[in-house]
């Protein structure tokens, strides 16, 4: 589907019309009379079949509502025979609001159809935002397209079944991105290179899998870049829990444990396509947490790349082990800012609900800055506070640190504090940990997201990096 901005209505025969307005404006609008006989009074949406007009009422004419209505308009016309829709907004609109609507429309179009034998043909080929009063910047169309393509590609990659999407598959995907865009470089570390790098924690997690692990390093290095941002993503292509096996019901959806890894790769792609003046790296720790005779065990002690020893008490707390070694590798790149994205803990979902990501770190200013940008981008995120009492929970009697906290409370934070053990002092204030366990994969449609993978982290990550470019 194509999105565009036009001063005039496209009067094609097979086009429908749509008007978006604030609920409060409905009563006095010209549509109130037309809708009245059908009992529609401005709550939600109503399609006037004869005149082919979809009336959409939103709480307020602001970005969050407009983004969601963009998605809802496209969803509504899916399966109907219209080839395009002219969308107009009753009221004042600016670039920010128009962008939100277009992005919502493009993200609302995606649905995972790869495993269905019948494909739904989407008749809707064009989404035209008709705007006569203000002159909108045409660059918002390009930006919405680039970002939505990254969001949707992330979703598709996460939704890819674990039988297919192995660590090698993710590495191949990354190589594909660097082939598509000259500006992106791709380096892959296989098992023997991981050994060479002394990534004992990462390697232990993958040991019982018949699929070899990969560390994927994508980079975009524009000339004259003023900042270097390094992203790290948890890329567990499957997490059955290992010997601390997950109960059957909790194992389902664990193909999505690669969400952070998929997101960081697509963030690099979007930033490169947008041509931002920031150097960006993404490091994906791609592994599979399985069971077998050679599996790592609760009671094992692992040696991480940073030199710290780790007592394993639960093999299901595997993401932090992979990330510990990836964060170590990432710090060697001397980042100005280091951010990891991970479906790290169920505790984060308990704490914030399934729609909100948790932001952790030692730098309050950076945390708040990221939170604000995330919320502006349309992603729900909230800061979770570290404290010295929870830090004690990951002390180990026999090793330097333990991979799980001794209390079941505060699990999202103790996981964040575990990662912090592998952040060198000079990078403590440059690092953020984003736990996307809740919103990364939700098995029902919500906001602009379909059932399944949402692409959590992609919009927030891109917008954050773009602000770094402006700052210089
Ligand atoms: N991948 C899971 C976390 C998760 C849970 C992501 C639900 C998405 C939805 C992670 O590896 C895990 O299993 N964490 C454990 C940690 C515990 C053993 C300390 C958890 O959250 O239960
Ligand atoms: Zn796990
Ligand atoms: Zn996991």
Q: In summary, what is this structure?
A:
The protein is of the alpha/beta class. The protein contains 16 helices and 19 strands.
Write up this protein.
The chain has 472 residues and is an alpha/beta fold. It has 2 domains: 2-132, 3-Layer(aba) Sandwich (Leucine Aminopeptidase, subunit E, domain 1), CATH 3.40.220; 145-469, Zn peptidases (Aminopeptidase, 3-Layer(aba) Sandwich). It contains 16 helices and 19 strands. It has helices spanning 23-26, 30-35, 63-77, 95-108, 139-159, 167-180, 191-196, 200-206, 248-251, 259-274, 319-331, 346-352, 364-377, 388-392, 411-420, 458-471, and strands at residues 2-6, 15-22, 45-48, 53-58, 84-89, 126-130, 184-189, 214-220, 228-239, 279-289, 301-303, 309-311, 337-342, 357-361, 381-383, 401-402, 431-435, 441-442, 452-453. The strands form 4 sheets. An 8-stranded mixed β-sheet has the order 7-8-10-9-13-17-14-15, with helices on both faces. Helix 4 (95-108) links the parallel strand 5 (84-89) and strand 6. Helix 5 packs antiparallel against helix 10, helix 8 (200-206) runs antiparallel to helix 11 (319-331) and helix 13 packs across helix 16 (458-471). The longest helix is centred in the first third of the chain and has 21 residues, at 139-159. The radius of gyration is 23 Å and the shape is elongated. The two termini are 35 Å apart. The model has no long low-confidence stretch (mean pLDDT 97). The structure holds ligand BES and zinc ion (2 copies). Ligand BES binds at residues 239, 257, 314, 316-319, 343-347, 349, 404, 411, 437. Residues 239, 241, 316, 318 line the site of one zinc ion (ZN).
């Amino acid at each position: 589907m194509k999105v565009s901005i036009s001063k005039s209505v496209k009067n094609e025969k097979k086009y429908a019309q749509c008007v978006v307005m604030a609920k409060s404006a409905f009563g006095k609008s010209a549509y109130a009379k037309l809708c009245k006989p059908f009992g529609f009074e401005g709550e939600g949406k109503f399609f006037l079949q004869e005149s082919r007009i979809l009336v959409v009422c939103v709480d307020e004419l602001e970005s969050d509502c407009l983004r969601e209505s963009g998605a809802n308009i496209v969803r509504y016309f899916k399966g109907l025979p219209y080839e395009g829709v002219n969308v107009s907004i009753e009221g004042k609109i600016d670039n920010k609001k128009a962008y939100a609507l277009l992005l919502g429309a493009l993200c609302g179009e995606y649905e995972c159809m790869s495993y269905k034998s019948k494909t739904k043909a989407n008749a809707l080929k064009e989404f035209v935002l008709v705007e006569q009063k203000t002159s909108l910047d045409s660059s918002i169309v390009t930006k919405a397209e680039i970002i939505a393509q990254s969001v949707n590609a992330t979703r598709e990659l996460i939704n890819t079944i674990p039988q297919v999407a192995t660590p090698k598959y993710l590495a191949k995907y990354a190589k594909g991105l660097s082939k598509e865009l000259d500006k992106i470089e791709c380096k892959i570390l296989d098992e023997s290179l991981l050994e060479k790098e002394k990534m004992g924690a990462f390697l232990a997690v993958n040991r019982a899998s018949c699929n070899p692990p990969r560390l994927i390093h994508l980079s975009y290095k524009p000339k004259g870049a003023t900042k270097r941002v390094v992203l790290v993503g948890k890329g567990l292509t499957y997490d059955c829990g290992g010997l601390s096996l997950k109960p059957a019901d909790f194992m389902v959806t664990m193909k999505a444990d690669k969400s952070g890894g998929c997101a960081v790769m697509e963030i690099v792609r979007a930033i490169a396509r947008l041509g931002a003046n920031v150097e960006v790296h993404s490091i994906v720790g791609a592994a599979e947490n399985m069971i077998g005779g050679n599996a790592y065990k609760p009671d094992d002690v692992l040696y991480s790349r940073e030199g710290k020893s780790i007592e394993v008490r639960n093999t299901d707390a595997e993401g932090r082990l992979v990330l510990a070694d990836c964060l170590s590798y990432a710090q060697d790149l001397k980042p100005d800012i280091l951010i990891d994205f991970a479906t790290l803990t169920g505790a984060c979902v308990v704490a914030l609900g399934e729609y909100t990501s948790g932001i952790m770190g030692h730098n309050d200013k950076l945390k708040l800055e990221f939170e604000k940008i995330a919320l502006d981008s349309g992603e729900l995120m909230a800061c979770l506070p570290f404290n010295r009492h929870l830090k004690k929970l990951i002390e180990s009697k026999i090793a330097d640190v333990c991979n799980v906290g001794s209390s079941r409370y505060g699990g999202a934070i103790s996981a964040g504090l575990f990662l912090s053990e592998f952040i060198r002092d000079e990078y403590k204030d440059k690092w953020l940990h984003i736990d996307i366990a809740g919103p990364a994969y939700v098995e029902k449609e919500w906001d602009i997201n379909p059932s399944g993978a949402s692409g959590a982290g992609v919009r927030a990550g891109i917008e954050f990096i773009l602000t770094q470019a402006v700052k210089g």
